[in-house]
Each structure stands twice: as structure tokens, then as C-alpha cells.
Amino acid sequence: MPEAPAVAKAALDVISPDNSRRRVRLTEFPFFVGRGEAGNDLSIPDTRISQQCAAIVQQGELYYLEDRGHHRGVFINQEKISRQALEEGDIITFGLENSYTLIFRLSESEPASVEKLLTRMDGMEGMEAIGGAADASSAGAAGLNKLNLLLEATRLLHSNLPLNSILEAMLDRAIKVTDADRGLLLEADASGALRHRLARRRGSASLPPEEVSPSQTAVSMALKQHSSVITADMREADGALQSAKSVVVQRLRAVVAIPLYSMPRAQTTEGTVRLQRGHFLGVLYLDSQRPAAFTMLDRQILDAIASESANILDNARLVERERERQRIDQELSIARDIQQALLPRKIRDFPELTIYGKNYPCHACGGDYFDIFPIDEKRTAFLVADVSGKGLGAALLSTMLQGALSGTSIGADPVRVFQHINHFLCEHEEVGRYATLFFGTLDRNGNLEYLNAGHPSPLLLRRGEVSELYTEGSYPVGLLPNAEFTPARSTLEPGDTLVLFSDGITEAVDINEEEFGVSRLREAMLGQHDVPLDHLQQRIYQAVEQFAAGTDQADDITLLLVRRSSHDAAL
Q1: Pairing label, strands 79-81, 74-76
Q2: pLDDT of res. 264
Q3: Collapsing DSSP states into helix, strand and coil, what is residue 499?
Q4: How far is CA 546 from CA 512, 529, 555, in A?
Q5: How far, rounded to the nearest angstrom, does the alpha carbon of residue 280 sit from its chain's CA centroid?
């Protein structure tokens, strides 16, 4: 995390669920944030927020955000923190859907020109700079009126008005300052292309944005040079701008195009802190059919309004991005809940076997699943599936497979079901996924019949020793249209345990990218033939965790343990 120097004044932009916003300055430290006013410098009116939620402290030249006990956690840029240095533009959230968002701002992001412009109003030298005329009193009055427009715009920025109302008010003030005929706010999309956000005309009146055709030449010049293009009289403008079609056709005499950028962010390279240009947000455009006379103060006020417009656009984009992330997280959470609900909830023992299963998705939802269900009074079916890929797409396909394979519980032939699934997936090759499957049925006499579709062989734990159930190969479903699936048979002795697993177990890696492998899995199982199945599952999973030592894993983990009952229970 880069360590950008803190400044004397910082603030929080407080964005409410309805997109209204206000700015709160950090005046003393620790600066407490929480529900209710008692003991808090910033009170957030959301009953889900803890009363003592978070605090901002200043240490040396840096500001730090600390979690002070919020039950959902405190987040900076989607990452949960306990204590972390804050940077310009950091998004602070509290793990809640449709709640308040805070954006940390340093003083450079304030309407910095306001105090400087006020200073310029003092003395005759300032009056001459503002008015450019002999009558300093008249010039000063005009300057004060224009400066008042800027102050109004600044107050609106921190109001509770909707976003578009604030942007319209900012554009109205810009039109008044420049005495322009019309104004247009162009907003950049994700690719950088400009779209018409809103338009206004003289007299604070709305204007359909599509009716405004800005000078593309002026806009292009502003973007190319990364600075404002302000032309008071076209007769003195650049030749390319004078002859531009939109300028000639619309008889424009004055044009303003100001590119809008988010605040620069500090980047640290080899111990050196540098400011990097912010993201391109759009263009503030104004024009008139009359020549203008822009004073130095006009230009500074325009720059300040443009800076504020960029600030609120940037805030809106950050908040929208955070809310979109929360929406996606919520949808993934729903998908995970559905997927987990489809897994066997209460795994009961059957007369012929004892069974235990566990699934650990590496993301919110995954492509692994297992299932257990009776075929008839004498046989029980169990299966493990692993869909290629991860995430929501794999979860959708695994759910489809589960529904299809459940048809065997009403008498459907497992071989025909496998063939049907294979043909279906191959005919819909645009899905781009396949799945490995192991499907087995066990009767009360220990007769095991199974189908293998490219899945790793289950390990057989018999009298403390470990072996593989099969070594022959087969094809996953959805890979080859003409693949054939042939049932195989074996016998489980009383007390035998089958360990079915997905490759998330054997392909789990440590910090050196070495895989856990089948040999380590076998070692974890040795001598465990008489322990309860939940203890065996914990032993295997703990062996994987100890091997990985905290390394993030890239695949789902599924374990299904099947143990044949003793002779007495089976009879």
C-alpha cells in the first residue's frame, strides 16, 4: 500500500443510499464513526451499523482507518481491514447492502480555488486582475457576484440533492459565469467514449442533451492537450477551430471545453511518491453565438466548477461500482445458498452403509457437488461430480447434472442417463464445459456397481490399508460425442470405506506450488479404518490445510466417505 503524505485537512464524502451526499471535515482525532450521535463525530443513520463502528486516527503524516468493533467488518476498497492507511479516493463500506458509503478525500480534492479567489478580492491589485477595468468598485462587485455563484455550487455539492440535480446546478453556474448560451456535460463510459449526460441553457432551463452538438474539434483539442480550451472570440481562435463544421454551421463565437479527471492518486515507486493522473471522466462544454470576455477570475471559477463536477462524477462512479459489487455479491450469495440447499442436508445412514460428505467451494459457489439417495429398498446410490471451471457458470451446470442424475432414483438406467448428459453437453458445445463423475450403487450384500466418467478413482480403505478402486481410464461427460460408459463391479467387505474426492484435494498446492497429491491423501487415511467418518473427514481436510499453510486454493474441495456396514447391520 503506497504511503502518500497526509495533509493538514482531510474530509469524508458521505454518500447515502439515495445518492445524496455531504462532506464532513476531519477536525479532530480520533474521529469516531458509528450509529447514533453519542460519542461519534460522524453519525450514520443505519440501525445495522454498530454504535462504535470505526475511527480515523492521524499518525505522523498519515491517516489510518481502524475497525472499532463493527459486527459486519469495516472495508476499504472491498477489502476487510482491522487497521489500514487511507489514501485519496479510498472507498469505506461496512459490509451492508444499500447502506452508506464514505469516500476519503485529502484537501487537494476540496474546491481549493475558493479561498485563493477570496484572497484575490482584497486590494486594488486584485480588483484589476478581476475586472480588468478602471472602475475597481464595479469590477469588484461583478467579481463578488461570480464568486458567489461558485460558493453556491460548492454548497450544493455537499447537499442532500440527487446527483443529477447537483450536476444541473453546477452547469447552470458555469453558464452564468461565462454568459454562455448553453452547456453540456459529456460523461466517459468504461471504454472512454463520451456520451451526453445532461444539457442546460441560459436561464437555468433544461435542454435535451441530444439536441446539443458540441464542437468536436474543441473537445478533441482539450483531450489531446489534457487541458482546457477556452476561446472567447472565434476570430482569434486556432484556424482548425475557426473552420470546424460545427462552429461554422452553428455560428459559434465562444467555446469552452474542459476535460474532467478524477483526483490524482499517489503512487510509490522505489520509495518515491509521485502523483499519477486520475481517470478520465468526461468533458464540461459551453458555447455561445456571442463573443465573450473571460477574465482571469472567470477562468479560475470555471476550473473550480469543473473540478467539483469531476469530483461528484468520480464519487458517483465509485459508489455505483461499490453498489454493483454488492449486488453481484448478493446474487452469488443467493446462488451459493441454493446450491448448498440442494446438497443432502441431513445425511442419514442406510442399512447397507454409513456415509458422510462435505463440500468446500473456493468461491461463493462452485462446480463440485455430491449426492446420496436410495434407488430401491436394497440399493443406495452415491455420486461425486466436478464441473470444469469455477464460479457461477460451473455451479449452474452442476445443478443441471444433479437434477438429471436424480432421475436414477425413479428407475432410469444410469448408463442411459450418462449417455444422455454427454450428448446434451456435446450438442451445446458453446457452453464450453465438461464434468467428471463417479456414480455408484451399493446393496446390502456389499455389491458395488459404478460408472466412472473421467473422475479420480476413489480410494479404498480396508483393514487399515489403502488402494485405488480402479486404474482404467474413461472420458468426462461433455467432452467426446461418441464416448461410451460401461458399468464396472466390485465388492465391499464389511467395514470397508470408500473415499470419494474431487481434484481440489489432490491438486491443493503449498507456497512452492507443489501439489498435495494422492500419496499424501493415502498417508492421511492409513490406519483410520475404524474411526468415525466425520473424524476421518476432519483428518483429511486438516492434512490438506496444514500442507497448504494458508496458500489460496484455485479449486473446490469435495469429500464423500462411504463405509459398508458390518455383517450384523446388513442382515
Answers
A1: antiparallel
A2: 60
A3: strand
A4: 14, 22, 17
A5: 20
- Distance in angstroms (rounded) separating the CA atoms of residues 448 and 491: 5
537, 401 Cβ separation under 8 angstroms: no
pLDDT band at residue 495 under the 50/70/90 scheme: very high
Residue 101 CA to residue 91 CA, distance in Å, equals 7
**Vertex 372, ends 559 and 438: CA angle to 5°?**
60
Q: Could you tell me the CA-to-CA distances from 556 to 328, 390, 434, 442, 485 in Å, in that order?
A: 20, 8, 15, 26, 25
307-335 confidence digits (pLDDT tens): 777 877 887 777 777 777 777 777 777 77
172 closest CA partner among 157, 187, 153: 153
- Overall domain count for the chain: 3
Residue 172 and residue 310 in one domain: yes
Say how far residue 378 (Cα) sits from the centre of its chain. Answer: 50
504 is a domain residue: yes
CA distances, 296 to each of 55, 119, 230, 300 (Å): 42, 14, 12, 6
> Using an 8 Å Cβ cutoff, are 58 and 50 in contact?
no
Task: Give the residue among 364, 360, 362 at the shortest CA–CA distance from 326.
Answer: 364
Q: Which domain holds residue 165?
A: 111-321
Quick check: 549 and 511 in contact, CB under 8 A? yes
Q: Are residues 117 and 235 in the same domain?
A: yes
Q: Are residues 372 and 495 in the same domain?
A: yes
Let me know: does 119 contact 149? Beta carbons within 8 Å: no
Average pLDDT over residues 400-425: 84
Question: Is 440 in a helix, a strand, or coil?
Answer: strand
- Do 20 and 50 belong to one domain? yes
H helices of 179-295, in order, are: 216-225, 239-242, 245-249
> How far is residue 235 CA from its own chain's centroid?
50
187 closest CA partner among 110, 256, 279, 276: 279
Q: Is residue 262 part of a domain?
A: yes
Is the pTM higher than 0.70? The answer reads no
**pLDDT tens-place string over residues 198-207:** 999 988 898 9
**Cell numbers describing residue 520:** 499424501
Pairing of strands 379-387, 435-443: antiparallel
Enclosing H/E stretch for 416: helix 414-427
Same domain for 240 and 145 = yes
d(CA 114, CA 508): 58
In Å, the largest CA–CA distance within the chain is 114
Sign of the dihedral through C-alpha 75, 77, 79, 82: negative
Helices (H) and strands (E) in the chain, counts: 14, 29
Q: Residue 140 pairs with which residues in a beta bridge?
A: none
Q: Which of 268, 287, 321 is the last residue of a domain?
A: 321
User: Which residues make beta-bridge pairs with 267?
Assistant: 274
Q: What's the rounded Cα separation, in Å, for the pair 63 and 76? A: 13
DSSP secondary structure code for residue 411 in this structure:
T
> The domain spanning residue 188 has which CATH number?
3.30.450.40
Provide the mean pLDDT of the chain. 80
Q: How far is CA 322 from CA 94, 329, 359, 424, 449, in A?
A: 11, 10, 30, 39, 51
- On whether both 405 and 517 belong to a single domain, the answer is yes
Same domain, 141 and 213: yes
pLDDT tens digit string along 224-262? 888 888 888 777 777 777 777 777 888 888 888 888 887
